[in-house]
Every structure is written in structure tokens, then in C-alpha cells.
Request: fold
Amino acid sequence: MDRLTARWSYARWAPHTIMVIAVVVDVTTPADYTGVPLISAACVLAGAMMSFRGAAWAGVFALGITVLLEWRTEVLLSPMGWSAITNVVLATLIGLDMNRMVYRHNKRLASVRSMAETMQRAVLPNPPAHIGPLQVAAHYEAADAEARIGGDAFAIQDTPYGVRILIGDVRGKGTGAVSTTSTLIGAFREAAHYVSDIGELAIRLEQSLERESAEHQDDEHHEEFATALIAQIDHQGQTLLVINRGHPEPYLIRTGSVTALTATTPDVPLGIGALTRQRSGPDLFPLAPRDILLFVTDGVTEARAPDGAFYAPETELRLPRTRDITPAALLGELADAIHHWTGGPRDDDMATLALKIP
Reply:
């Protein structure tokens, strides 16, 4: 982000640079050639790249340069001179009008972003830094950069049965996935406190999605499903139970090494369980003090390098073995690694959740 800001700062000097080039061209070429068209172009560019006041002063500066150049070639009072001056004035006015249009567009975009961010915080509020005995951190980036909201979901609850975690990826992205995301998280928050078995909890979540799908069978949301991980950590931080419903596997980070916790029998995503009536049971993994559990969506595991290679946290995420890392620092390292890996924009939402055993 800092590099992008620096590049934009340099780019804003482009209109002045073009004017300097225009002067050099006008001075170093025969009288039949003129740099005034470049000066006019710079005035329009200033309107698109600078503030309104900056663009106005750039137009005044351009007009002054044009008058001096036309005076130098002794055509200032000729039709050619007046034509050049008129062109610069018109270009300045076009640039200022463009500046106003860009300002209005940015203002509307900021309003849309503010509304989307408010919706995002309502559906996916950041979890507290500590839940039960665990340190917790979450990170979310939507693929739809304009709306800043997507289809990934996560939630964490301290329940009588242990700390329970949900991370999922709803079909689709953007604001169209908000309804299904809200249904999934709401069902989890309600059932997590009252259902003792996480296998039954997964069934409750699926039933909620099926009811939501039945209510919207006449519109574009009638095929509602979500990949999901439902996990449970006991209050002593000794065991992890995981049910995988078609979601990327979680990762165990211990002394700097990253290990994928692969499901014995992965199940189909929530919402399409009718395709197979056989539900898989939870997998049990032992935990140790200072372990970190990393939960991700496919925005991480399907992030592509320019050569098409997928990002694999267990081999590509480099963590120091000698330094104790916090969940927030881990997610920061992962986000930086993904951005470096893709080398540009991503085409999917990315949600990550990290929990550290005390």
C-alpha cells in the first residue's frame, strides 16, 4: 500500500512534467512545430489527477507558458496565437469539469463503501482478543474491493462444551451472499450453546440453510450452500474436534512448522447434504501449549501465482522456529505472503482465523 501511495504521488506530477516537455519541444524545434497540444493535454490530465485548486493553478500556469511561447515566436496576436490560447483555456475548463465529476463519483463510492463496511461489521464482527483460554485474531478481505463485502463467514463462541469455531465460504460473493452468510452465522451462534455434539451442530446449520433455500426457491438465491469447518477446542486446550464439510483443511502451527489437519472422511458442503445421507464424524487432534490453529477459506488455498501455482500454507508460509508469534502477527504474515504470491488482485474473498493455545 505504501508503494502504491508513493507511485500515485509521483504520478500527480505528470501534468507539470508534460508541460516542461512541451516547452522543450517548442524551443528546440523549428517554428512550424509547437508544443501547445501537449500543454492542452496536460491541463486535461491535471483535472483528472489533481485537486480542483491544483488543476486550476495548473491551467493558469499552462496559460502563462502558452502566452510566453507564442510571444517568443511572434504569433501571439495572430489567429494561430489566439487559437493556441483558446485551446489551453478550453482544455483547462474540460479538466476542471472532469475533476468535479471524479469528485462526485468518489463521494458516491465512499458512501457505498461505508454502508458495505457497516453491513460487514454487523454480519462478521471482529472477535475479542481472548475467548476462554485462547488468544484469537481474525482477518477478512473481500474480493469485491468496491463493495468490501463478500461470501466468507467466521464465528467463534465460548460454550459449555468448549470453544466452538465456524469458518465457511458461501456460494457466490459480493452483497448477494450476505443473506446466506447471515443465516449461517446466526444459526451457529444460536445452536452452538445448546447442542452438545458438533456433528449434530453441523446438521442444525445445514437445516437452517435448507429452510433459507426453500424460502427463496423462486429467486437467484435458491441454491444456497456453503463449505464449512465446524471445530471445537476443549477448555483445557488439549484436544481439537473438526468436522469438514467440503472446506479447506485447518493448519496446526507448532514451533514454526505448519501441518495440515486433513479430514479422515471429508463431507459435502452444507446445504447439499441430501446428495448423500451418510454424514462423516469429527476428527480428533491432540494439542499442546503454544500451538496455533489456523483456519482459512479458499481465498488462501486457491490464491494463484502468475505462473498458475496455488498457494500452500504448509510449504510456503515461512515462520521463525525460535520466535513466539501471536495470532494477529501470524495472520499479518499470511496476508503479506498471499499478496506477494499473487503479485496483484485476487479473485476470491479471503478470511483467516487464528487461535493460540496458552
Summary: The longest helix spans residues 79-123.
